[in-house]
Every structure is written in structure tokens, then in C-alpha cells.
Amino acid sequence: MMSENLEHLSNIARAVIQAEDFLEDTPDFPWSEFSIVFYSNDKGKLGGSFGYAYDASGDYEAFAISVRPIRQIIADYRDWLAKDTDKGFMQMLFQFNRDSGQVQADFEYDDPMRWKVTPNNIDDMIEELRPNLGE
What we know:
The chain has 135 residues and is an alpha+beta fold. It contains 3 helices and 5 strands. It has a 5-stranded antiparallel beta sheet. Helix 1 (2-18) packs antiparallel against helix 2 (71-85). The protein has helices at 2-18, 71-85, 122-129, and strands at residues 31-40, 46-55, 60-63, 91-97, 103-108. A hairpin with a 5-residue loop joins strand 1 and strand 2 (46-55). Helix content is 30%, strand content 27%.
């Protein structure tokens, strides 16, 4: 089961990094890790994403990717996870560290505000989403 989970997570990491619009505004940003939140629409279909890439010095760049090319990869993972829980997630926080190769995912099933970024919480949320997987 663990290797199948890792295979799904690896597919997601590759799809995000290879996404045409990943860091499109700052293609030379020397990121070492990123966090991305995928969220579903009211019908449970992947509706969008937002994330932050972080460099080794702590700087960050915001990004979002089009979900159309990655929709099936996320749906496959969600369906695979739902076999055990009978409930698909509404949001997924996906984190990856390029140097260590570590990856992790966290899920939200009920609270659509859990990772919502607002003007009042943006600084806190940028820090809360920082992966810190290389340490």
C-alpha cells in the first residue's frame, strides 16, 4: 500500500513541476520546495489550485497551475484513498522538496476555509504551508 501511495504522490509531483504554468512568472526562481493546495468545486471535481515555491533562503513565489492537465492524476489518487475512507477529500495540501525528494500530502474533508488565504492571514498561511521537508 505504501509503495502505491508513493507512486501516486510521485505522479503528482512530476505533473506539478512539468506544468506549463508552474512558476511561469518567475521561471528562474531557485526553488527547493513547494506546497500546493488543490481544491474541489461543489460537485467534487478538481476546481483549482494555488501554491508557494520556497528557496533555500526562505524567499517564496506564489503560483497556480491549470488543473485540467492534472485533474485525472488527482482524481485517481482521491479515488484510491477513498477506498479506505469512503469519502473523498475536498482539499489536498501537497508538498515536495526537490533536494531531499521527500513528499507529503494532507487532506481536508469538511472545512473549506482550512487553507484559504486572505489579506488578514496571508503571511501566516505562507509560513504554515512551508513544507520544511529538507530538514
